Hints:
Layout lengths: L1 E2 L4 E4 L5 H16 L13 E6 L5 H12 L3 E6 L11 H10 L4 E6 L2 H7 L8 E7 L5 H14 L7 E5 L6 H12 L4 E5 L14 E3 L2 H5 L4 E4 L15 H8 L3 H4 L7 E3 L12 H4 L6 H22 L1
Helix pairs in contact: 1-5, 1-11, 2-11, 5-6, 5-11
The protein binds phosphoric acid mono(formamide)ester (CP).
Amino acid sequence: MALTAKTHLLTCDHWEKDQILSLLARAEALEVMPAAELPRCLHHKTLVNLFYEPSTRTRASFELAAKQLGAHVINIAAASSSVKKGETLWDTLETIQAMGVHGVVLRHSDHDEMQASLGALAPSTFFLNGGSGCVAHPTQALLDMLTIQQQHPDFSALTVAIVGDIAHSRVAHSDIALLRTLGVGECRLIAPQGLLPSKEPEGVSCYTELDAGLQDVDVVMLLRLQKERMVEAAIPDEAAYAAAYGLTLDRLAKAKPHAMVMHPGPMNRGVEIDNAVVNCPQSVINKQVRNGVAVRMALLEYLSQQT
Ligand code: CP
């Protein structure tokens, strides 16, 4: 991951393969460890979850992960904080740090502002990006890799398709980075032209036809339309989008017979994913959520060892 300080995890773009594999192995071990045997590496430490955008999975799983490692957790939603009175992100981070907290998880709509504000935190205060604009969601990508690896240990043998609003997706950006580092066989991006990245990322192929893109893939990762990050004029007609790109069981049949179906959530059923696909045996969506707790424990433990 790109580190502004060794303890500040902003993106996973430059994370090395060995580091990823070691984190995934540790997450897998922590996932099956009895609660009483989990390391208490955050005992007497405090983590702040600072969220400028809504979240269910990321916020709650960071809280659960940190508490399982012995931490106190404070949740701050920007909408009900002094941010509403005009306080900047920099000043908010400085204020939180002055209280003596040990770590911060931050979700923010502006990646550049997040990066610029990290200077407010001392290297001794660890930092994790909980999702920044359209740019990065490193912990989601790590949990996605763990979910794939549990079923397919050899990434080089895999064809992975990412389907949906890739242009506005921080998840897609981070997933592509980790898939490439782990040596994925093939990565396909499938979306209408307007929702593909303006510049094709290195090492991927782009498709505008769902059926063609899904042919013989091992993994299908779905994304919702992220209207909150679209300009008004660019929002596609939802019914037309669902007709052309919504994943149904019929369309899933183009993929390999046991292809995994993934979705980072939140889902919009009936738009990018049909109800029957959510509940089909190939769906690992709830497994992704469970893995999110383990991956975040592994990351928190790693960071606690750096400070
Ligand atoms: N996948 C994800 O980031 O979900 P939340 O927005 O609910 O945290």
